Amino acid sequence: MPTAATQTHKREAFGSRNVFILSAIGSAVGLGNIWRFPYVAYEGGGGAFLIPYLCALLTAGIPLLFFDYAIGHRFRGSAPLAFRRLHRSAETLGWWQVLICVVISVYYAVIIAWSAMYTWFSAQLTWGPGNENDFFFSDFLQSADVAKTGVSTEFVPQVGLPLVVVWLAVIVIMCLGVKKGIGRANMILMPLLTVMFAVLVVQSLFLPGALDGLNAFFTPDWEALADPAVWASAYGHIFFSLSVAFGIMVTYSSYLKRKTDLTGSGLVVAFANSGFEILAGIGVFAALGFMAQAQGTDVSGVASSGIGLAFIAFPTIVSQAAGGSIIGVLFFGALVFAGVTSLISILEVIVAALQDKLGWSRIRTTLTVSIPLAVISMALFSTTTALSVLDTTDAFVNAFGIMAVALVAVIVVAWMLHRLPALKDHLNRRSSFPVGRVWMLLVGVLAPVVLGYLFVTGLIDKIANPYSGYPAWFLGVFGWGMVIALVVLAFGLALLPWGRRSHAKDDPDYDEFLAAEHYDPDQETAAHAQPEQRGAVA
Question: By three-state DSSP, how is residue 155 classified?
Answer without folding.
Answer: strand
